């Protein structure tokens, strides 16, 4: 193949060695870009009044090209259509979806703008890999400008059921634009099934049983490619000084630690998690003063109202629960609204007896996998995982729960803190084997392999164990 061109709304910082400074996905993509002398294109994260052409710089053999957006575009394309319309829609929150024509118009316009700035940088033999819901119409905009390259699209978030998607005005238009890609990747078979259902029922299209969908006189291939961890990065983080120190400090405390790490996002089920923890304290008084929940909330999309309100709600709930159950020496629920370095987090994962990863809906959820990867094999903790996270399709040996049931989740917390070591080890071993095998390299290689080859993509089930 020629170069690989990755396009995403956000572009990671790349250092002089061609390595991304943080984040598993960014690192995996930068590894692929280094191999293929690639280009990473996206939004600079900055606003400017009259943005010019892309700013291109080379770092460690990777070209990074970014464009600025105007304040209006950031408001209507990023905060608006991406995060007030598509995000809640894809996470089954139609009650939070805002429908504004200005959002849809800016979404189309920014995708055109991406295409305008990217076209002059493209070579004929480049392969493009577009990421996530901000950029669904990008292939269509590029094709309209004459691009004949192979273009793949990967959706990191859930694909909603047809009945939910069709509440979006002009939903046909959004899906039609996906037929300008050569290959579409979803995190799980479940999200892929929902997409196929839409194509068959709404567009009266057909499936050929080998991963190809035909509708509107066009054919596109689609498959499930569950994303995984960069295991090299994980091992290095587990061994790091920061992780060891954090783990030792936390283990020295005279109580079992439960941990949650989430962006402060309504899809993550945080109020439900707090309520279940409260129920557990209520039901199991013998565990009071012996267990604490550390919930790290990474601030996110703070210009969007639904996110601001959530932080306020969590703060007051944590205060109330601590007021109700806490003692002079013990705060049961520690809610920290701050981002932490990944190596420190890894140490905290290792110190925790259980992780509570209970989104109401989630495309995949890599925290679940990171928690497993960070455990001590001789004394591993327990993963409590929502059955509505994409990760649940692979991580069957976790304690799978319905996060909407406060009582079921409270029971799972009790099972986790009481679980005998032998059972913890057996479950962890099975989980770890899957996490280590279905890693980030496997993910990107299988996607790129299918994008570049012409073979059917439905023939093998990437989730099969
Ligand atoms: C999810 C999305 C990503 C997004 C990330 C952080 O993981 O799938 O596309 O980058 O959240 O959200 P933000 O809005 O800060 O980019």
TrEMBL record:
CDD domains assigned to the protein according to its UniProt record, in alphabetical order: GT20_TPS
UniProt cross-references to InterPro entries, sorted A to Z: Glyco_trans_20 (IPR001830)
Name the residues that span the membrane. Answer: none
User: What Gene Ontology molecular-function terms does this entry list?
Assistant: alpha,alpha-trehalose-phosphate synthase (UDP-forming) activity
**Pfam families, per the entry:** Glyco_transf_20 (PF00982)
Its domain of life reads Bacteria
Q: Give me any GO biological process, just one.
A: trehalose biosynthetic process
Which Gene3D superfamilies does this chain map to? Glycogen Phosphorylase B
Family to which the UniProt record says this protein belongs:
Belongs to the glycosyltransferase 20 family.
Q: Which PANTHER family match?
A: BCDNA.GH08860 (PTHR10788:SF106), TREHALOSE-6-PHOSPHATE SYNTHASE (PTHR10788)
Q: Supply the name of the protein.
A: Trehalose-6-phosphate synthase
Q: Which organism is it from?
A: Sphingomonas aracearum
């Amino acid at each position: 193949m020629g170069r690989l061109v990755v396009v995403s709304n956000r572009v990671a910082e790349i250092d002089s060695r061609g390595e991304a400074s943080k984040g598993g996905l960014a690192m995996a993509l930068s590894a692929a870009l280094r191999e293929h002398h690639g280009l990473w294109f996206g939004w600079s994260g900055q606003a400017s009044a009259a943005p010019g052409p892309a700013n291109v710089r080379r770092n460690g053999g990777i070209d990074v090209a970014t464009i600025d957006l105007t304040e209006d575009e950031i408001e209507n394309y990023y905060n608006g259509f991406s995060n007030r319309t598509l995000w809640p829609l894809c996470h089954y929150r139609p009650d939070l979806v805002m429908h504004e024509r200005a959002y849809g118009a800016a979404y189309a316009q920014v995708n055109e703008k991406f295409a305008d700035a990217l076209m002059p940088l493209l070579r004929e033999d480049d392969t493009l890999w577009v990421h996530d819901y901000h950029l669904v119409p990008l292939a269509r905009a590029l094709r309209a400008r004459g691009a004949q390259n192979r273009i793949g699209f990967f959706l990191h978030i859930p694909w909603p059921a047809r009945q939910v998607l069709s509440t979006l005005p002009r939903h046909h238009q959004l899906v039609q634009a996906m037929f300008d890609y050569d290959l579409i990747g979803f995190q799980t078979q479940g999200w892929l099934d929902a997409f196929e259902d839409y194509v068959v029922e709404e567009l009266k299209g057909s499936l050929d049983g080998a991963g190809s969908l035909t509708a509107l006189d066009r054919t596109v291939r689609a498959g499930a490619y569950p994303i995984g961890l960069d295991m090299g990065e994980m091992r290095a983080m587990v061994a790091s000084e920061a992780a060891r120190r954090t783990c030792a400090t936390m283990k020295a405390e005279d109580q079992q630690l439960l941990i949650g790490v989430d962006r402060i996002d309504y899809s993550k089920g945080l109020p439900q998690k707090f309520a279940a923890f409260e129920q557990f304290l209520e039901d199991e008084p013998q565990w009071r003063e012996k267990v604490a929940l550390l919930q790290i909330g990474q601030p996110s999309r703070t210009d969007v109202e639904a996110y601001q309100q959530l932080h306020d709600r969590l703060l007051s709930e944590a205060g109330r629960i601590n007021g109700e159950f806490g003692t002079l020496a013990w705060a049961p629920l520690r809610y920290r609204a701050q981002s932490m370095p990944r190596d420190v987090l890894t140490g905290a994962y290792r110190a925790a007896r259980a992780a509570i990863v209970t989104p109401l809906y989630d495309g995949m959820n890599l925290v679940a996998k990171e928690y497993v990867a960070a455990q001590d094999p001789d004394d591993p903790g327990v993963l409590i995982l929502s059955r509505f996270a994409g990760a649940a399709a692979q991580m069957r040996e976790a304690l799978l729960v319905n996060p909407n049931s406060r009582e079921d989740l409270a029971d799972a917390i009790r099972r986790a803190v009481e679980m005998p070591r032998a059972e913890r080890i057996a479950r962890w071993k099975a989980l770890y084997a899957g996490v280590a095998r279905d890693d980030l390299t496997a993910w990107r290689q299988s996607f790129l392999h299918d994008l570049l080859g012409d073979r059917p993509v439905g023939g093998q089930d990437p989730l099969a164990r």
